[in-house]
Amino acid sequence: MTHLLVTGGGRGLGRALCDEGLARGWRVTATVRRAGTAPAGAAEIVMDVTDAGAIAALAGRVGPLDVLVNNAGIIGPAARAIGPLDPAAFLETFRVDTLAPLAVTQALLPCLRTAPTGRGRVLAISSQMSFMGYAKSDHIAYRAAKAALNKVMQGLATDLAAEGIAVVLIDPGWLRTDMGGPQADLEPAEVARAILSVAGGLDMSRSGQFLRHDGTRRDF
């Protein structure tokens, strides 16, 4: 049975990914900030993804793992590049959106190396706002953090290629979530179905790529 772990599984796209995994008959583990927010049927781990101690203990709580989706993230301050600059808020956005996915993936490598299906796969939820050809400046901390996430996950893909662990970035599109707002284009459940279809068929030929939620390749 495929074992899926989703960070930030208590709401939005993360919860939709957990729901879809359960609907497929997969074993699902969700990390959440508040107890009782993971979907029924999912194993719940209450933790902050920036907590080094919690991350260090994660592998012992998870066990063999097929699919890791680094989904937890924050939008951060709305400020543009000309300010006002809030260094603490800027750095917190990087801690959650860039460093936490890298740290969680590193911690769970022993679990991915013993994947029940024989091939561990890592997906990281990025954003169209990270695209280097998209020059808008609102929420500059978020844009920069997601662009940095793309680079560290690309580096992981390079480092893990010899082990056969595929790593990809996912642009989920504009979602109707607390972050995306009610005017957004896409329903989380629809996008979650597409992302887990990508995860199910992911192989090393696609590792290191930046993909749309439907699996088509996009530019960094």
UniProtKB/TrEMBL annotation:
SUPFAM superfamilies: NAD(P)-binding Rossmann-fold domains
InterPro entries: NAD(P)-bd_dom_sf (IPR036291), SDR_enzymes (IPR052184), SDR_fam (IPR002347)
Domain of life: Bacteria
One matching Pfam family: adh_short
Gene3D superfamilies xrefs: NAD(P)-binding Rossmann-like Domain (3.40.50.720)
GO molecular function: oxidoreductase activity, acting on the CH-OH group of donors, NAD or NADP as acceptor
Similarity comment text for this entry: Belongs to the short-chain dehydrogenases/reductases (SDR) family.
Full protein name: SDR family NAD(P)-dependent oxidoreductase
Provenance organism: Paracoccus subflavus
